[in-house]
Structure formats: structure tokens, C-alpha cells
């Protein structure tokens, strides 16, 4: 099939970007969206043009690097998928597709469709870890963890830090990301020790980096490739409020 | 604790608390107003005069005003800050599945604020600072403000006020469908089970409150115009 592409092109972080139109023929419906972009780039290289810069790594939905805003949705049409898991069968012959980078103050564009998601690393450095030495793998049942807590922590741990929550949120809020990380660690005995300080520090860092606040639209949950629920945001709010009222700064 | 007031969650906490307080007020307000529907105004006038002369209300009134001011102030501040979090907008409007009301709370609130100004000018201002007819139900021993005639007068003489009040109620309905459960989510009273319950209660609450407020002008319109 033949598709029309409208892609954001920007030389460098400081340059003024613009949309550029491309036409691509011979797109097979079994191609992934990234393979379609690969074939576009091969064509551009053959024609002596500069290829479109986009981020990708594992191409199996676990690295979270292929963040593209496709026709008004992070990772394009479809639920709980990365762009690498989006296939061209989701589009029809003659469709026009607009591809934009994540737009957020916290995610500046590096080049074309690639954004700098270093802000997430900074938020993690502010408290998304366990600083006690947990030693060797403990014997099974040596540390008692309820099945409910284990399941919830595991679901939160599914967050791959792709930034789709920020991209989908009308406030560019990273609350779902922070909620997943704070909840995952707060639910487990090793992480519980620092739970209060973690919630305070990670939110402070998120605010400092220019992300917005959560207004509970649920857009993040709808676009999360790992289906992380906004229940974790309620959990984060609980953690944060309790920490604010009890932890001395 | 000092950072709490400036943090994103802290500011939302104040939105939530003031919102919950205002929602409680709406229930009290509607309860009193529903007396308009019964009798020829005696019950409503008694209740309205009790509310305005009650010493507790002297304390509640400024608290209520502060509640409104804080809710509006924080909403404006948060909305502005959230808009700044995306300095460069998307070309294609977001198509993510999220309720329209949740994404337009500030616009809905803005319309409700305009309504509030009209509403205060219609009744509150006249009762508090203007001249209002008196009425007595015990042969002239106690004189009461005839609030019933004021209210019914507005609704039966000027039909566009009925329209304004009904439109106001519709915007309030949309604002409450998101505001109610969202307030609980923000204070952390939510989980995978409660989210469904809270969303259902939101709709029930919004239908009762907005439906009730919209019914009163309709009632007068039907009672006197037809």
C-alpha cells in the first residue's frame, strides 16, 4: 500500500523544526511501524537525502525507546503497545500519517522524532532505588510478602519509562511514571524503609523538571503500553500526603 | 511540610479539599432550595431566614467564600502551570480516550464562575445589601424577608433567567462528574475497586445536584407560565 507521511524534522535541539511530507510506496501490512520508517529511510538514503531520526532499540515492546506520537496518540492506534508493536495493518492504503515527537517541557527534542528522556533518569536518581544492601537472594519465604502486595508491585514494575504517560497527558505530567516507581518499592519490605523520603524527593524532582500536575483525566493509563493503572496514582498520593504530614525535612 | 504547599500534589490536595467542601455546600443549598417546591412559600421563607440569621452561618459564610476563592485561585494557578509544561503543542489534537469533562475542568469551572456572579447578583446581593419585601406569618409579630417572592419573581418574569440557571446546572453537572471522584483520587482514597464505585457515585451525585437545581426554575416556569 501507499501512504502519505507528515513528519516533524528538526536539525538539533535549538533549531526551529518543521513538518516535512513524504510518500512511501510498497508498504506491506505485516510491517511494523518502525520497519515502515526503516524503508522510508532506506529510500531517503538512496536518494541522497537525510534520513528521519527516530529512536528504537529492542523492537519487542520492553525497552520503551520508540516513543512516537502518531496521528494524535502516543504509540499510535491500539492499546498497550509500543510503536514497535504497531503494525501497518492498522492503516489503510492512501492514509496520511502525522508523526510527532513527545511534546513536553521535560522532554526536549534532540533531533527530529528523538526526545531527551533524561528527566526520567533524574527523577529515578532522586529516590527510585533501595539504598540498603539486600545481599544475596533470600531463601523463599524468609521475607514474608503477601500475594496481593507482590502482584501489585509486579504490575507497577512493568513500567518501562517510555514517557507515553507524559506525551498523552494534557498537562505533560509524569505522575503515572512516578506513581509506578514509588508504589513498586513502597509495596515491598526492602523499599518500604525509604518510602516516605522517596515519594517526597521524586515528586519534588518531577516538579522541578517542569512536568505538570495530575488532573486525573486517565489519559496516561489509556496510553500506557504496559497498562499501568491510575490506582497507583492514588497510592502515590497516599504515600506523598502521609509523608508530607509526618516526615521532617 | 513547607514544600507541600508548592508541590504538584500539595496544590491538588487543596483543590480536592475545597472541592469536597463546596460539594457539601451544594447539598445543603439544594436541600434548602427544594423547599421552594412545597407550599406557597412559607416553609422556604422560614428556612431561608433561619439560614441567614443563624449565628453559625455568620462563621460558615466567610469560610464558604474562602473555599470558593481558594478553589478558583488554585485552579487558575495549576492550569497555567500545566499549560506551561507543554510549551510546544502537538499539531494533531490528542485522540486518547479520556472524558471530555476531565480535560476541560477549567473551562467548565469558568462558565460556572460566570454563572455564580449572575446568581449572587440575582439573590445574595439583593438580600444582603438591597431592599427586599417583608412578610409576616404570625400577624406582624416577626417580619421575615420574602425571599420566596424574589426567587419566584425572577423565574416567572424573565424566562432567560430560567435558561441561564438550567445551562448553569448542565455545566455544573459536567464539572461534578469528574470533580467528585477526582477529589477522592487526589487525597488517595481510591483503588482498583473504589474507582468504579466513586465514578458511579459521582454520576448519582451530579444528577441529583444539577438535576435538582435545574428543576427549580423549570418548576416555576411550568407553574406560572402555563
Portion of residues in beta strands of chain B equals: under 5%
**Architecture of the largest domain in chain A, CATH level 2?**
Orthogonal Bundle
Q: Give the strand order, joined by hyphens, for the main sheet of chain B.
A: 1-2
Derived structural class of chain A: alpha+beta
| Distance between the ends of chain A | 60 Å
Quaternary state, please? heterodimer
Instruction: Outline the biggest β-sheet of chain B.
Output: 2 strands, antiparallel
Element string of chain A (H = helix, E = strand):
EEHEEEEEHHHHHHHH
Cα-based radius of gyration of chain A, to the nearest Å: 20 Å
**Mean of pLDDT of chain B:** 93
Name of the CATH first level of the largest domain in chain A:
Mainly Alpha
Which pair of protein chains has the largest interface, and what are the residue counts? Answer: A-B, 52 and 46 residues
Largest sheet of chain A: 5 strands, mixed
Shape of chain A: elongated
Q: How far apart are the termini of chain B?
A: 60 Å
Output the keywords:
heterodimer, A: 249 residues, alpha+beta, Ubiquitin-like (UB roll), Fumarate Reductase Iron-sulfur Protein, Chain B, domain 2, 2 domains, five-stranded mixed sheet, two-stranded antiparallel ribbon, 7 strands, B: 226 residues, mainly alpha, 3 helical TM bundles of succinate and fumarate reductases, 2 strands
Which helices and strands appear, and what pairs or packs with what?
The complex is a heterodimer of chains A (249) and B (226).
Chain A (H helix, E strand, L loop, with lengths): L2 E7 L8 E7 L8 H14 L22 E2 L2 E2 L21 E5 L8 E3 L2 E2 L2 H8 L21 H11 L6 H5 L6 H12 L2 H4 L2 H14 L10 H5 L7 H16 L3
Parallel strand pairs in A: 1-5
Antiparallel strand pairs in A: 1-2, 3-4, 3-5, 6-7
Helix pairs in contact in A: 2-7, 3-5, 5-7, 5-9, 7-9
Chain B lengths: L7 H26 L8 H12 L1 H30 L15 H4 L1 H25 L4 E2 L8 E2 L1 H11 L1 H28 L7 H32 L1
Antiparallel strand pairs in B: 1-2
Helix pairs in contact in B: 1-3, 1-7, 1-8, 5-7, 7-8
Amino acid at each position: 500500500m501507499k501512504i502519505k507521511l507528515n513528519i516533524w524534522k528538526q536539525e538539533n535541539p535549538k533549531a526551529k523544526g518543521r513538518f516535512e511530507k513524504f510518500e512511501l510506496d510498497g508498504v506491506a501490512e505485516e510491517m511494523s511501524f518502525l520497519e515502515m520508517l526503516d524503508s522510508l529511510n532506506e529510500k531517503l538514503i538512496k536518494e541522497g537525502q537525510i534520513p528521519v531520526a527516530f529512536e528504537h532499540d529492542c523492537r519487542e515492546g520492553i525497552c520503551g525507546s520508540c516513543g512516537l506520537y502518531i496521528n494524535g496518540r502516543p504509540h499510535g492506534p491500539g492499546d498497550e503497545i509500543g510503536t514497535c508493536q504497531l503494525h501497518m495493518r492498522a492503516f489503510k492504503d492512501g492514509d496520511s500519517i502525522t508523526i510527532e515527537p513527545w511534546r513536553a517541557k521535560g522532554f526536549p527534542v534532540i533531533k527530529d522524532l528523538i526526545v531527551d528522556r533524561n528527566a526520567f533518569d533524574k527523577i529515578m536518581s532522586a529516590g527510585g532505588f533501595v539504598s540498603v544492601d539486600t545481599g544475596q537472594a533470600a531463601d523463599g519465604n524468609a521475607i514474608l510478602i503477601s500475594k496481593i502486595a507482590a502482584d501489585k508491585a509486579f504490575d507497577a514494575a512493568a513500567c518501562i519509562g517510555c514517557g507515553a504517560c507524559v506525551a498523552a497527558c494534557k498537562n505533560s505530567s509524569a505522575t503515572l511514571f512516578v506513581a509506578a516507581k514509588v508504589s513498586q518499592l513502597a509495596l515491598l519490605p526492602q523499599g518500604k524503609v525509604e518510602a516516605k523520603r522517596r515519594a517526597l524527593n521524586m515528586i519534588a524532582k518531577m516538579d522541578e523538571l517542569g512536568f505538570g500536575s495530575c488532573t486525573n483525566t486517565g489519559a496516561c493509563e489509556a496510553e500506557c503500553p504496559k497498562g499501568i493503572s491510575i490506582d497507583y496514582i492514588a497510592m502515590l498520593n497516599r504515600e506523598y500526603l502521609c509523608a508530607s504530614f509526618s516526615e521532617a525535612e | 511540610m513547607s514544600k507541600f504547599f508548592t508541590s504538584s500534589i500539595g496544590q491538588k490536595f487543596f483543590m480536592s479539599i475545597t472541592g469536597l467542601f463546596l460539594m457539601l455546600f451544594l447539598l445543603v443549598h439544594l436541600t434548602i432550595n427544594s423547599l421552594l417546591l412545597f407550599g406557597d412559600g412559607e416553609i422556604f421563607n422560614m428556612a431561608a431566614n433561619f439560614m441567614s440569621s443563624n449565628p453559625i452561618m455568620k462563621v460558615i459564610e466567610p469560610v464558604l467564600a474562602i473555599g470558593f476563592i481558594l478553589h478558583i485561585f488554585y485552579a487558575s494557578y495549576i492550569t497555567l502551570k500545566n499549560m506551561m509544561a507543554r510549551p510546544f503543542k502537538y499539531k494533531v489534537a490528542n485522540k486518547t480516550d479520556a472524558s471530555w469533562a476531565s480535560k476541560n475542568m477549567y473551562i467548565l469551572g469558568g462558565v460556572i464562575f460566570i454563572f455564580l456572579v449572575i446568581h449572587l447578583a440575582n439573590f445574595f446581593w439583593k438580600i444582603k445589601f438591597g431592599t427586599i419585601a417583608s412578610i409576616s406569618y404570625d400577624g406582624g409579630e416577626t417580619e421575615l424577608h420574602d425571599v420566596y417572592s424574589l426567587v419566584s419573581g425572577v423565574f416567572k418574569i424573565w424566562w432567560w433567567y430560567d435558561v441561564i440557571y438550567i445551562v448553569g446546572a448542565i455545566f455544573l453537572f459536567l464539572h461534578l462528574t469528574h470533580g467528585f471522584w477526582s477529589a477522592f483520587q487526589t487525597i488517595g482514597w481510591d483503588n482498583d475497586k473504589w474507582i468504579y464505585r466513586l465514578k458511579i457515585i459521582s454520576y448519582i451525585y451530579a444528577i441529583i445536584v444539577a438535576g435538582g437545581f435545574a428543576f427549580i426554575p423549570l418548576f416555576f416556569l411550568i407553574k406560572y407560565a402555563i
